[in-house]
Amino acid sequence: MNNNKKAYIAGGCFWGMEDLFRTRPGIKDTEVGYIGGSNENPTYGSHPGHAEGIEITYDPNETSFKQILDYFFRIHNPTTVDRQGNDIGSSYRSAIFFQSEEEKAEAKEVIKIVNDSKKWDGEVMTTLEPYSKFWQAEPEHQDYLVKKPDGYTCHFERFDTSFI
């Protein structure tokens, strides 16, 4: 029986985050899309308020929500507001879209651990936002760095050890 769960996060351009998460233990699928904004049926050219996010399908017997967040905080800079690398604007914010009070509490716990570690030169600015609706991005954005291995990304593993 399939007991997979989904997690929703945003941390800059969705291409790089998807590419790094796709090979993590316990991750069964990734999709890039738009979340947390004001219009229905957003597109790459029109997604006001939406973050470029990823939907992660995972097996909770193989990985946990906390482990996903731990890796999330290792592959993007959570101390910037509305910015990752060359990408600027609310589309590129660092955000966790929680689906339950348990996920919200776990996210707060991981943020505290990351802040207390002092590995980053600033405080975590990641927003905690209630899950709304995830709108899948256009097909050309799915698996983008698999299709274009030399394509743009500002995501990489900044720390080789976990926070948790």
Automatic annotation (TrEMBL):
Q: Does the keyword Oxidoreductase apply?
A: yes
**This protein's UniProt keywords:** Oxidoreductase
Q: What EC identifiers does the entry list?
A: 1.8.4.11
Any coiled-coil ranges, and where? none
Which Pfam families does this chain map to?
PMSR
EC class name: oxidoreductase
Domain (Peptide methionine sulphoxide reductase MsrA): give its ranges. Answer: 6-154
The record's active-site residues are 13
The record's GO molecular-function terms, alphabetically, read: L-methionine:thioredoxin-disulfide S-oxidoreductase activity; peptide-methionine (S)-S-oxide reductase activity
Task: Show the catalytic activity.
Answer: L-methionyl-[protein] + [thioredoxin]-disulfide + H2O = L-methionyl-(S)-S-oxide-[protein] + [thioredoxin]-dithiol; [thioredoxin]-disulfide + L-methionine + H2O = L-methionine (S)-S-oxide + [thioredoxin]-dithiol
Q: Spell out the family assignment given in the record's similarity comment.
A: Belongs to the MsrA Met sulfoxide reductase family.
- Function (record text): Has an important function as a repair enzyme for proteins that have been inactivated by oxidation. Catalyzes the reversible oxidation-reduction of methionine sulfoxide in proteins to methionine.
Q: What is this protein called?
A: Peptide methionine sulfoxide reductase MsrA
In which organism is this protein found?
A: Aequorivita sublithincola (strain DSM 14238 / LMG 21431 / ACAM 643 / 9-3)
